[in-house]
Amino acid sequence: VNAFLAEAKADGTINRLIEKWLGDTEPTEHPAYSRLTGENGTIHLAISVDNKPLLYQTAEGYTGFEMELLTLFGQYAGYAYDIEVVPFESIIAGISSGKYDMAASALNITPEREESVDFSDPYASFDVVMVVKDTDGQENGKTLADFENATLGIFSGSSFDALAKERFPNAQRQYYTLVPDMILAVEQGKIDGYITETTYVTAAIWEGAEIEAVEEIIDRTSAGFIFRKD
Q1: CA distance to 17, 80, 83, 172, per residue, from 34 (Å)
Q2: Which helix (H) or strand (E) holds 227?
Q3: What is the pLDDT of residue 116?
Q4: Does pLDDT of 15 surpass 90?
Q5: Contact, 191 vs 140, CB < 8 A?
Q6: CB of 100 within 8 A of CB of 213?
Q7: Which of 156, 149, 128 is CA-nearest to residue 214?
Q8: Is the per-residue pLDDT at 188 higher than 70?
Q9: Which residues on adjacent β-strands are paired with residue 196?
């Protein structure tokens, strides 16, 4: 995997996929993972499909940045996939127990997770931002200092929980298991904002969400595929 990612970065494949999957409109061309020949074997792959635009499901099947990257890896190394969709919060436990060979779920690389699983080299890095209600095309004028005592939405099980505790220790936190519920909460003013990567802001705007990101960046994350430790 790391050899493939190194080549994909060097030859511009990663940048091409970023432009495709993080653009202003949702792509209509989806990865053809079902056509992989698997001459060198089949990987039992665990995925979570609530990660648009990185990995999600449509009528055509599983798609997104990660799924296309995995398809290209399958072509590169001669693997096919036996795909199992599992809840996001079960991914690491399933890998640690040996239930799956590999997992993809837009997983940020963190020291805590590296205690339980092995990550590939990062396939990309993304900005972490504060998301607020859209101001109808006008500058929202907010800075991160405005959220020191705010009510923030947190996606349960995500690395943004620890980040919120560290960066906004006095803020109240409300936890959500569904991203659409968190988006609706900020649109309705039930929370002041929520922390996420710019990737998910792109996906939500594709769907017509009335949100935008505060210009000041909170952090930057790196994501990778995961494997059983050692």
Answers
A1: 19, 8, 10, 45
A2: strand 226-228
A3: 92
A4: yes
A5: no
A6: no
A7: 128
A8: yes
A9: 129
SS3 content of the chain, % helix, strand, coil (to 5): 35, 30, 40
Q: If you count them, how many residues does the chain have?
A: 230
pLDDT tens by residue, 207-220:
899 999 999 999 99
**47 residue type, one letter:** I
- As a whole number of angstroms, the distance between CA 149 and CA 180 comes to 24
Per-residue tokens: 128? 């972490």
- Whole-angstrom Cα distance, residue 154 to residue 173? 7
CB 40 within 8 A of CB 99: no
